[in-house]
């Protein structure tokens, strides 16, 4: 979003930043105070019209406005497709009515990204249809905001929202009027970003806890030796490092896939599951390594455990992640089976083509061989005819040559004629004498 004053960086860079904030010791308090303005407006950045982006993004990027994420409801929870809040179109406005719960930063936010049903659920073919997404002013005259006290993450307020006859301008429908009903598809784009960023924050908590417990284990002396020299301390902490590093690799894979346009949620959810579990186990191991003092607030370990606990249940629980991935992988297996069946069929067709081509090649080879044989016989016959012609020509040339010789030789006389001529010649000579 460089055109609107942003840095043009992706969720990958945001994940590194939020992990660093959490790892500094700020944990969820520090990270949650900034992460909503990073992932929350992802649907707007992707699906909003140019005029909407121009109107909404610069104030958010410049820090002039803050937004909250209005999706979760008390009666539906993670079953977003059963969402009950409605927005009814009336001219140039929508009239919104419903409840939202666990809405962070609503006490100070100026804007809200609101998901509501624009067509009653009983009138749609699929529950995912006709859910619409709005980015609008959080009008406190129409929205009742109630603070929810909680055991941790006190730097960020959490709230319940109740609204009735809330007038929302139609121009605040993300994507414009033609995008009415596409809200669920849009919100998934923001939810996947939320999952991976929460995973990065959990990693930060885990590494913070591991660093602090490793330092303590090197300083704490028991039986005249640092406790980090005992395998009962070394091995569990080594396992924590292995789990955190494994989760980190999946988190970075998930954010890279997200930035490259992958729309599926299994990697984002898997990253969130692995990171939150690794962070919780590391924080728990840190308390156990500290012993009783770990339960006290002096070393901050109990705070890490509280923050890591939140990462296991929000924004989605480990059990729901497993349900989603099982369903997603089942669907993908179905696609895989279909692809395999199509590949097998294609292979069969290929084999048939190969057989046909082989038969054609054999038949063609036989015909070529036959043609060669015929050609050989024809050549032999031609050679014989040529030899015979050459002999006939030679005989003709010989006969013609002899005839020419005969025609050029002087005429031959007989013996009798010769004797007569000789006698006549002698008689002439005698008379002359």
UniProtKB/TrEMBL annotation:
Q: Superkingdom of the source?
A: Eukaryota
Record's keyword annotation contains DNA-binding: no
Coiled-coil blocks: 379-406
Every Acyl-CoA dehydrogenase/oxidase N-terminal domain range: 2-63
Keywords (alphabetical) are: Coiled coil, FAD, Flavoprotein, Oxidoreductase
Pfam families, per database record: Acyl-CoA_dh_1, Acyl-CoA_dh_M, Acyl-CoA_dh_N, BAR_4
Cofactor(s) required, per the database record: FAD
Please list the residue ranges annotated as the Acyl-CoA dehydrogenase/oxidase C-terminal domain.
181-314
Where is the SLM1/RGC1-like BAR-like domain positioned along the sequence? 331-403
Task: List, for all copies, the residue spans of the domain called Acyl-CoA oxidase/dehydrogenase middle.
Answer: 68-165
State whether keyword Nucleotide-binding applies.
Answer: no
Family per similarity comment: Belongs to the acyl-CoA dehydrogenase family.
Q: Which protein, by its recorded name, is this?
A: Acyl-CoA dehydrogenase
The record lists the lineage as:
Eukaryota, Fungi, Dikarya, Ascomycota, Pezizomycotina
């Amino acid at each position: 979003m460089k055109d609107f004053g942003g840095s043009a960086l992706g969720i990958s860079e945001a994940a590194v930043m939020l992990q660093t904030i959490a790892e500094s010791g700020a944990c969820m308090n520090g990270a949650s105070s900034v992460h909503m303005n990073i992932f929350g407006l992802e649907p707007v950045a992707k699906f909003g019209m140019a005029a909407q982006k121009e109107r909404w993004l610069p104030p958010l990027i410049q820090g002039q406005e803050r937004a909250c994420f209005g999706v979760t409801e008390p009666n539906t929870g993670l079953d977003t497709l059963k969402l009950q809040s409605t927005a009814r179109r009336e001219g140039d406005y929508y009239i919104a009515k419903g409840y939202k719960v666990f809405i962070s930063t609503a006490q100070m936010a100026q804007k809200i990204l609101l998901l509501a049903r624009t067509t009653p659920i009983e009138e749609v073919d699929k529950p995912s249809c006709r859910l619409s997404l709005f980015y609008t002013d959080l009008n406190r005259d129409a929205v009742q905001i109630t603070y929810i006290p909680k055991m941790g993450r006190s730097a960020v307020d959490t709230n319940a929202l109740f609204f009735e006859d809330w007038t929302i301008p139609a121009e605040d429908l993300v994507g414009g009027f033609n995008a009415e009903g596409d809200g669920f598809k849009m919100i998934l784009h923001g939810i996947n970003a939320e999952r991976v960023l929460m995973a990065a924050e959990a990693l930060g908590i885990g590494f913070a806890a591991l660093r602090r417990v490793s330092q303590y284990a090197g300083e704490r002396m028991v039986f005249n030796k640092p406790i980090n020299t005992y395998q009962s301390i070394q091995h569990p902490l080594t396992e924590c490092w292995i789990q955190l590093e494994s989760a980190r690799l999946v988190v970075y894979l998930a954010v890279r896939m997200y930035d490259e346009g992958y729309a599926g949620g299994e990697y984002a959810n898997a990253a969130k599951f692995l990171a939150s579990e690794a962070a919780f186990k590391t924080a728990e191991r840190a308390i156990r390594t500290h012993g009783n003092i770990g339960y006290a607030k002096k070393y901050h370990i109990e705070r890490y455990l509280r923050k890591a606990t939140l990462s296991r249940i929000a924004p989605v629980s480990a059990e729901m992640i497993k349900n989603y991935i099982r369903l997603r992988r089942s669907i993908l297996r179905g696609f895989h089976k279909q692809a395999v069946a199509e590949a097998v069929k294609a292979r069969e067709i290929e084999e048939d083509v190969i057989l046909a081509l082989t038969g054609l090649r054999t038949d063609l080879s036989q015909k070529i061989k036959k043609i060669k044989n015929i050609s050989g016989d024809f050549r032999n016959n031609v050679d014989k005819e040529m030899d015979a012609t050459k002999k006939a020509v030679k005989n003709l040339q010989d006969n013609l040559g002899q005839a020419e010789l005969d025609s050029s030789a002087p005429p031959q006389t007989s013996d009798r004629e010769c004797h007569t001529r000789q006698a006549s010649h002698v008689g002439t000579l005698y008379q002359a004498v």
